[in-house]
């Protein structure tokens, strides 16, 4: 490294007119958060792995389902409309309850990495009111999660049509569109759920444990509890994130299971909103780190 | 201008800053001096709203930091704790901070140049040495061309070249009328950089005075060595009052330490009487002495 020679002349030059007067703005904060996320290699790698894993699972399920049709002696071209719709949604969104873990971890990481590295001190010194930084971060996370989910669902649909061309006719049916939308909203909400809990806990390990526990462990616990025959247990289980993910990715159909597509949508939005609000309360109330 | 009034911060039962009031004026370098745990870093975090005071207020140019429209243009801060993500490049780190205030990439390049980080600007910060990390922190503090600079232990980890560079930079920034506050537990660093010193101990202000009040505060002495030390000592004492002579620690009688008259006078006396001098050294009362006296009772973790 070279050591800069400091002289009053160079300083006068460099401190003179720097263009517009600096001014804190929400647009600037959003840009800042975008730079922060796009400049981390770990985030890019996580997103790439998500897309690869999702495409792989879509390929596998498309191949498996097509094989099962020929095994049962069905003519794919003569499949009923609802079977084709269900095929497309299975191939494109079947993996989303599992991919949810990666989205949740992404949400955790976006904020917990600020605490583990100490970056939060620089971030909050630049944006001392804190709320704009928090919402700027949440917004950039939501956009990245939405774009990633959209791409992976689109890849899934393309793979589905490639394996079974007659399904193309059902691509813009209400069921397939609502199912695709449901899966995307679900994944975005799970990333915000992870974000909010990590903002409360300020810890990567704690955030990931909580997200994994909510998505994977709690449903198993409730399954055991359901053996007791208590009536509230299956009802509660329907509103857990994993179960909502399945409900939403089936789309708005007549065969929809409880609690139904639109109530499910509301429930998953609450799963995102409540932790996000809690995270903001903690961020505003506590010292920076 | 930074003004603290009755500023207090507890962490649990521990009082990190205890009812502290001070004013840090523009146009000079003010030093926060004190042992570890004295409340220097906490006071600085309170100034930029990272921690919330338990009581009292601190304002920057008359306003609370969080109420400012362009905080980075008012205060540039270098915190002791690393505030950088190790996976990001120095340039991306600076660009992200600059973006919040709409500060241009041109200015980002300027602070990179100014701090001598050109060759490593695109490398990940995780591989930086302590010194490069400090330079990046200073670059971030300068981004908004701020009126006030707060630097926690800025020379920590810098090589002698870097120390000199920081010292000149701070002096220059103060000469432009900016408010400069730096903290250090190194008294020698303060003596060379600061115009004004606030000594903290156990969360309280122990002293708040110009540096000149600390250095040479009636403690100037002269060290004298001579093979004819005893003869010289009696000559020096003759006809003068208020002179304090102490034999040197070595105890071989070959020298003494004198207070109450200048080295020049002692030299002239020796010359007039043909006395050989081996050493004649004026010893300024050091900031160390003043500091140790002031903080003796305040040291939280006194040795032994």
Automatic annotation (TrEMBL), chain A:
Keywords: Membrane, Transmembrane, Transmembrane helix. The keyword Membrane applies. The chain crosses the membrane at residues 45-64, 84-111, 138-164, 176-201, 208-226, 260-283. The keyword Translocase does not apply. PANTHER family: INTEGRAL MEMBRANE PROTEIN-RELATED, MEMBRANE PROTEIN. This is ABC transporter permease subunit. It comes from Leucobacter albus.
From TrEMBL, chain B:
GO terms for molecular function: ATP binding. Residues 2-227 form the ABC transporter domain. InterPro entries: AAA+_ATPase (IPR003593), ABC_transporter-like_ATP-bd (IPR003439), P-loop_NTPase (IPR027417). Keywords: ATP-binding, Nucleotide-binding, Transport. It comes from the Bacteria. Belongs to the ABC transporter superfamily. PANTHER family: ABC TRANSPORTER, ATP-BINDING PROTEIN. This is ABC transporter ATP-binding protein. It comes from Leucobacter albus.
